Amino acid sequence: MKEKVKEKVKSAVIDAFGVEPPQFKVEKPKDENLGDLATNVAFLLAKNLRKNPADIAGELAQLLSRDPDFEKVSAVRGFVNFTFSRDFLLQELKDLLLRGQEYYREDVGKGKRVQLEFVSANPTGPLHLGHGRGAVVGDALARIMSFFGFDITREYYINDAGRQVYMLGVSIFYRYLQLLNKEKEYPDIEKLFEEEGYKGEYVVELAKELKEAVGDALLEDVRIAFEKLTEHPFPFSKNYLGKFDPTKGDKVELCSLFGLDAMIWEIKKDLEDMGIEFDVWFSERSLYEQGLVEKMIQTLSEKGLTYEKDGALWLKTSDFGDDKDRVLRKSDGSYTYFASDIAYHWNKFQRGFEKVIDLWGADHYGYIPRVKASLKMLGISEDWLEVYLIQIVKLFKGGEEVKMSKRAGNFVTLRELMEEVGSDAVRFVFLTKRSDTPLDFNVDLVKEKSSENPVFYVQYAHARISGVFREFRERFSKDPEKEDLIPYLKNLKEEAEFKLIKKVLMFKDELVDVAVKRDPHLITYALIDLAGTFHSYYNHHRVIGSEEGIMLGRLALLKAVRECLRVGLKLIGVSAPEKM
RNA sequence: GGGCCCGUAGCUCAGACGGAUAGAGCAGGGGAUUUCUAAUCCCCAGGUCGGAGGUUCGAGUCCUCCCGGGCCCGCCA
To answer: How far apart are CA A104 and CA A88, in angstroms?
Structure first.
């Protein structure tokens, strides 16, 4: 709707003043009594035309009021306000009923190849709430951008290289030793575990699985343990275990690979149960295996952008906007996480993505300048990469914050929350705030199934409409889905009906906004607003029981509202129940 | 110490490339049920937009300083 008005304003400006208008806004006015939409174009033209905004607005309003799509166009203190005509609104509504959800679709993205990398949690433990938030936000963004014509690739970057993976192996091995009362025989392992190990209960579970598969063989001989692991029927595929070289690998490494397979399987399962899937699971190891990290360093070195200092290799990021230089290769010869990250993004670029969007945990804030700096060094423009941050989620239960500490292994997992409140509630609540601000998740409220709960408020609107359709079917023995209701639209006369129609039609503007601003939390607000308008209408106007023509007209309206709710809910991955 | 984010109604938050009388939900008070689901609706009350300056025709929005809360600042991942 905004676009339509914008076009009209544009040509009106050209007709009236013979100039191309500057970038102007078409927005909802502060007070809805002023109209459906408004533009500030007169303020922006005032300077060039040397006229005051009120006069410009007046002229434009006069010109535009001839347009039959508007019932009223008024100039108020420099703004031009538009009220759509009922004919126009009904015409649009008809279009919506004919095209269904396609009415909302528009090719904003023009097939632009966009990669969306999100979650990318380390495979060293289960997903926690912050990861879940990233997963929900990323999934919603992917759904919406795909809907609006972007060619989206969803990608999960697996940090399967480096010390953390080694520590996962150490932790599993240590817990395994404990199960066999042998931990005292491995003081080095014990010390490492105490200092840096993963202390969560899930590691004990992994160790139990390991022991079940290999018995005490891992104490004796790595080769035998490896054979037993290979033969054991685990639910997961042995992608990493398959890479183990029994002639070289040690016990900890075997544990690491086993842990990776198990953890990645768990993570995938958690995400799948939330309805979230990825197109690509990208392995950090593969960057090393394919020599991409080396090649990247070579490329940068040839450009003279690296130097050796204190036995380490540094990148001159400070010349490109970072506040200091960063290490690529440590003095012990191993690479930093930063090094593989550059290689990864370079690889994304080489794969031909025109735009890359990363969702990172908020604690990675400091990484943005250095990654952007390194991309610039590789000749990649700064706005090619967009990074959005996901802030932490705090859990509240019984009015108290549930304290979480990863170090102590004491945290609430995404799975636990999902099992407690359901995937719909998790998804919806994670989208009730901008992703870069901290979120408080009140478990009690979401479980209450009361009016305070916005998830139910919105879903209930859908269920109510379904109820009306059921009732109609029973009483009239006709399938409302198959009836041609469009001829009855003309019977819609009530003020409340047009208020609702406007909400349904303007919902598209909200969705486009989300795709452009990359801000999926706006959808939940639009849905709550739409549901509220519907509930209000429902409480004041009856559908079944009204005179037939009116009933069928209203049924058509509800069908449109239902379509709108379904689109909105689908795009955030929340179900639209028929009954509650 | 340096950098960034936040501070809006009792509570949780929307609103920010400057634009109209600053919004919603919850909590509080008052009302609606011969019903297509009351998991709903209607009405009322509630504000120095953290504070002080500045820019502007116009500031919750931009700039400076201050106060309060949080995050980041490794040859960690």
So the answer is: 17
Residues 6+ apart with CB under 8 A from A118: A134, A135, A137, A138, A139, A141, A154, A155, A156, A358, A359
CA of A92 to C1' of B53 (A): 51
pLDDT of residue A410: 55
- Give the ipTM of the model, two decimals please: 0.85
Can you count the helices (H) and strands (E) in chain A? Answer: 22, 15
* pLDDT tens per residue, range A428-468: 888 888 787 778 787 777 776 655 678 888 999 999 999 99
Q: Is A328 helix (H, G, I), strand (E, B) or coil?
A: strand
CA(A28)–C1'(B59) in Å? 20
User: Any idea which nucleotide's C1' is nearest the CA of A545?
Assistant: B36
Q: Which nucleotide is nearest to A335 (CA to C1')?
A: B75
Distance CA A202 to C1' B59 in A: 53
What pLDDT, on a 0 to 100 scale, did the predictor assign at position A398?
Answer: 67
Question: Which bases of chain B are under 7 A from a protein CB atom?
Answer: 2-6, 12-15, 17, 19-27, 32, 36-42, 57, 70-77
- b/e code A64-93 from CB counts within 10 Å (16+ = b): bbeeebbbebbbbebbbbbbbeeebbbebb
Mean pLDDT score, A51-66: 85
* Residue–nucleotide distance: A209 CA to B2 C1' (Å): 49
What pLDDT shows up at residue A306?
92
Of all nucleotides, the one whose C1′ comes closest to residue A448's CA is B39
Give the pair of three-digit tokens for residue A98.
């004919």
3-state secondary structure of A299: helix
Continuous segment of H or E residues that includes residue A279: none
- A531 contact partners, CB below 8 Å, separation of at least 6: A457, A458, A460, A461, A565
CATH numbers and ranges of domains, chain A: 2-84 (3.30.1360.70), 163-277 (no CATH), 290-390 (3.40.50.620), 454-571 (1.10.730.10)
Calculate the average pLDDT of chain A. Answer: 88
Any idea what DSSP says for residue A239?
A: T
Nearest nucleotide by C1' position to the A533 CA atom: B41
Whether the pLDDT of residue A409 is over 60: the answer is no
Protein CA at A532 to nucleotide C1' at B40, angstroms: 9
